[in-house]
Specification:
276 residues; binds fe (iii) ion; two-stranded antiparallel sheet; binds zinc ion; single chain; alpha/beta
Length: 276
Amino acid sequence: MLNIGCHLSASKGFLNMGETAVSLGGNTFQFFTRNPRGGSAKDIDKNDADSLVSFMKENGFAKILAHAPYTLNACAKVPSIREFAYNTMLDDLKRMEYLPGNMYNFHPGSHVGQGVETGIELIADLLNSILWEEQQTCVLLETMAGKGSEVGSRFEELRQIIDRVNLSGKIGVCLDTCHVNDAGYDIVNDLDGVLNEFDKKIGLNRLKAIHLNDSKNPLGARKDRHEKIGDGYIGEAAFEKIVNHPVLRDLPMFLETPNELEGYKREIALLKSLQR
Ligand code: FE
Ligand code: FE
Ligand code: ZN
């Protein structure tokens, strides 16, 4: 069975997202922990969180995925921006303990001219200052497209971050299909080759989630513009391979395509029909 969902608005609370996911034919979802451009989060509603936890159990949900705001840059040059990253991630991860055993995804960051090495060190430093032994959330580094000075468009870079993290057992990777395409990994013609490369450089045991997005741009474009499933350079046939691949087929998959709920519902149905 495909574990699939899409990005949902958190504005009506946790339980509402669970119910919406089911109404779209999914059994998981992704949400922003707060305004994607930053800002403070609402106080956590413990009853609402508990309701979602029960709802997920009753409805056989896969793990859900919280997404950090895009403005979180762990390897910014300006110290106050790194401080924002620290405060935001720490607060987000404390909140995630109300939804124990799920996942939190973030963009590793942009080194803004400091160089990849410095970027990698700053990202690992941030994680080392935040992660704690008893935490129940798996923190995912997202594979990036490589636009601007983004860190994490090469599997090697993600590996180097993980190698520097003391509590690396808390770290996984979320593979974004649009981003890896744009970074130059040919999942259309050589999915096996890309996954072998992932295994060699990072280890497939770290792969915890998939962002399913088609791309408006060709292989290696380093752009990061998501397209509807089947309408971009990746194409429906590649997604058919992805949802059936033995190392991917059981992972939770999240759509971040340019869609309203009706469009997400159609894509979820399409992807389910593609899985054999
Ligand atoms: Fe993302
Ligand atoms: Fe993504
Ligand atoms: Zn993206």
